[in-house]
């Protein structure tokens, strides 16, 4: 079969999932004809993605969430105002996505949580089946217990998730653990999509804390903690592209531009891991048996952190108080069942996709989600 990928370009999680799924499909005799990546003015497509992917990559302007002025957590008012001003350009992107679906010759579209893909299927109803992949679809599952957070924010997140999957034949919900499917919502629960590079790492207990922050404003919190505890080595990755590849603050604190090879190598050798609770890197830390601290930057990451804590993976904090992470690491015991669950991903996801031969699911193609 021929696949077209459409990927949300925010952060690294959806990009690494696309790399992994492309390799799975290629190994099993399928073809990825093209990859469309949503871009924004505030993000740059990481070099690790363009180096690792095989299919031609094209970009289009896509909505994104803006951080607060100090570049930490998401600012909903700023994000809404910014994206309203961009609506005409997003309309052009929707027409572009429609043309690529029509002209690519793809049998199936794989949507990695890109909003404009769902809107394209709502407005133009392409005849090519769409499959949506992401941890966020688990939040719609009838048996998933949502965290006790702001209900308004949670409702907006679930609305956004439904909008990304308008017209979808199936939703593949990436999960930290096995759960039954939710046929009524067309949700199949599958393991995380971790790259083979993760499996090749040899995990060792190091002396430094490894970290990743999707919004570089959190670096101030890290620096403040470091000033009080300069004896603890810290190695953090961030999105401040104007800086040099490695910004060495002093002998025990360095900030790195995002490079996935180096990122995984450093994770494998760290003592503990701290991040803004992106699903992908949390899974990598769990697979490598690293205790972790999650500092959510928005409601979606709060749900990720809530779910990871239920799986015994780590703790949550508001401002990178890394002392709490070191205390947690003293008693942390990794869940050995997680590795076996992750390693079943290729079989389970292939099985879900290979049942979607064209014509088999055409009668479901034009279903439009309810908004509640």
TrEMBL record:
Gene3D superfamilies: Glycogen Phosphorylase B
Highest taxon of source: Bacteria
The keyword Transferase appears for this protein: yes
Molecular function, one GO term: glycosyltransferase activity
UniProt key word Protein transport: no
Keywords: Transferase
The protein, known as: Glycosyltransferase
């Amino acid at each position: 079969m021929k696949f077209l990928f459409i990927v949300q370009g925010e952060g690294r999680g959806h990009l690494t999932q696309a790399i992994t799924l492309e390799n799975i499909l290629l190994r099993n005799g399928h073809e990825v004809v093209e990859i469309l990546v949503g871009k924004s003015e505030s993000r740059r497509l990481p070099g690790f993605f363009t180096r690792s992917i095989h299919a031609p990559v094209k970009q289009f302007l896509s909505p994104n969430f803006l951080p607060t002025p100090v570049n930490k957590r998401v600012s909903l008012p700023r994000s809404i105002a910014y994206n309203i001003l961009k609506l005409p350009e997003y309309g052009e992107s929707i027409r572009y996505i429609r043309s690529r679906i029509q002209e690519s010759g793809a049998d199936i579209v794989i949507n990695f949580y890109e909003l404009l893909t769902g809107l394209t299927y709502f407005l133009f109803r392409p005849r090519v089946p769409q499959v949506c992949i992401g941890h966020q679809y688990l939040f719609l599952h009838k048996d998933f217990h949502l965290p006790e957070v702001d209900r308004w924010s949670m409702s907006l997140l679930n609305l956004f998730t439904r909008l990304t999957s308008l017209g979808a034949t199936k939703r593949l919900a990436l999960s930290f653990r096995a759960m039954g499917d939710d046929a009524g919502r067309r949700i199949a629960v599958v393991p995380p999509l971790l790259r083979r590079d993760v499996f090749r790492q040899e995990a060792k207990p190091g002396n430094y804390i490894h970290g990743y922050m999707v919004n570089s404003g959190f670096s101030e919190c890290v620096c403040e903690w470091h000033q009080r505890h300069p004896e603890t080595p810290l190695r953090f990755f961030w999105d401040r592209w104007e800086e040099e590849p490695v910004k060495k603050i002093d002998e025990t604190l360095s900030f790195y531009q995002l490079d996935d090879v180096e990122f995984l190598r450093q994770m494998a050798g760290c003592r503990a891991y701290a991040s803004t609770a992106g699903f992908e890197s949390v899974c990598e830390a769990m697979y490598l048996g690293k205790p972790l601290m999650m500092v959510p930057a928005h409601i979606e990451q709060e749900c990720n952190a809530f779910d990871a804590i239920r799986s015994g993976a780590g703790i949550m904090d508001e401002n990178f108080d890394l002392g709490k992470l070191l205390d947690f690491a003293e008693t942390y015991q990794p869940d050995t069942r997680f590795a076996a669950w992750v390693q079943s991903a290729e079989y389970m996801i292939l099985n879900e996709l290979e049942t979607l031969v064209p014509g088999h699911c055409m009668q479901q193609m034009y279903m439009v989600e309810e908004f509640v």
